[in-house]
Amino acid sequence: xxxxxxxxxxxxxxxxxxxxxxxxxxxxxxxxxxxxxxxxxxxxxxxxxxxxxxxxxxxxxxxxxxxxxxxxxxxxxxxxxxxxxxxxxxxxxxxxxxxxxxxxxxxxxxxxxxxxxxxxxxxxxxxxxxxxxxxxxxxxxxxxxxxxxxxxxxxxxxxxxxxxxxxxxxxxxxxxxxxxxxxxxxxxxxxxxxxxxxxxxxxxxxxxxxxxxxxxxxxxxxxxxxxxxxxxxxxxxxxxxxxxxxxxxxxxxxxxxxxxxxxxxxxxxxxxxxxxxxxxxxxxxxxxxxxxxxxxxxxxxxxxxxxxxxxxxxxxxxxxxxxxxxxxxxxxxxxxxxxxxxxxxxxxxxxxxxxxxxxxxxxxxxxxxxxxxxxxxxxxxxxxxxxxxxxxxxxxxxxxxxxxxxxxxxxxxxxxxxxxxxxxxxxxxxxxxxxxxxxxxxxxxxxxxxxxxxxxxxxxxxxxxxxxxxxxxxxxxxxxxxxxxxxxxxxxxxx
Length: 495
Known about the structure:
Strand content: 15-25%
Keywords: Oxidoreductase
Helix content: 25-40%
Active site: 268
Radius of gyration: 24 Å
InterPro entries: Ald_DH/histidinol_DH, Ald_DH_C, Ald_DH_CS_CYS, Ald_DH_CS_GLU, Ald_DH_N, Aldehyde_DH_dom
Family: Belongs to the aldehyde dehydrogenase family.
Shape: globular
Number of helices: 16
Largest sheet: 7 strands, mixed
Oligomer: single chain
Structural class: alpha/beta
């Protein structure tokens, strides 16, 4: 695969359907480099008929049992060859991530986008192999023995079937990895459909699967310019499950599409997570803006974009946050001095501009940022922005912005902080900082969110993540994120 540098456009047969590389017959997908706004690659997208062919291939593979019928250890061996291909081609994948998603090459985000993805793939397989295929149901003795009969009740975990994996543009490689490896190790067939905004780092999964010699149809990857194929994946009765990461609005559409055939769903959607700094940990709050805005330019669904601090220290904390952000170097993702790169496209920048304008019109106060950097004429950039809000009523505290914008809100006491943190329709993640760990954990337990990080965070394949309410259903990674790709069957045996 060529190194996607400069303004060179790339066009090749990148779709992978039924064990073969094919050229798309649909509309072309132009891939933009967000660092400079140029189109550096073009992929011929899949037609509706080709999406249907991918679904049929996955369904046929499922019907034949060539994959689901294999022992898990054999599937693991094949998938390990896929992972080895990723490891051998890290430089190529890194170039793709930098060019198509604006991942800053010199930052820790690169490690999370690439190195962690490959390690998580191995870890997910390792974790799955520890899970029993069959478990005993805990029947009491009175139900196990009836007169002259003995009753045994078992739980058996089986693959769901055909999984449609629809990934997002912000972390395209790692999200595709989580979904693909989890579904495949559980015995499912997969159709992967990456975001058309950043498809290249997911299209390489076809090369990895081909190198690993996965049976034809077990894994397929398509890309399209529109949403016709995604709708087909959500409605076709041969698809048994949809795993989707993206916005809440689109996730709601996926739920509606899947309803008619009662598909299994795993949805990781939007977030409006809180960072709560307890009174004994306000010294840590100066870097809250960096955590919310700088990693991947705030395009992180779990980012703590609502910062809650004691009201009597709010002004000093906001000044410290602004000072901390003053050293951020905004620029092209490939530049060695860059610490914060671009947003994905011009639409994302305009969205940030509109949110800042609406927030200020509704009573917010601008502490820093709030505009495109004046020294960057090309590309899609927005300054890390901190807003001072009197409460949670402002639009900047209500809606997911998905950009480098965070708001600071003062609280009277801990109960007030928790009340405001929970005053949101979202519930994806949360952050609590406190020297008194008992108190910090108590606050964490009271937050209505799928995950909470106390005094820091760590992303592990062994711990699941997922949302509540408008942040989604189901879990990704961990035991729960593997079991969701399996159906549970109870078997009763009388002897």
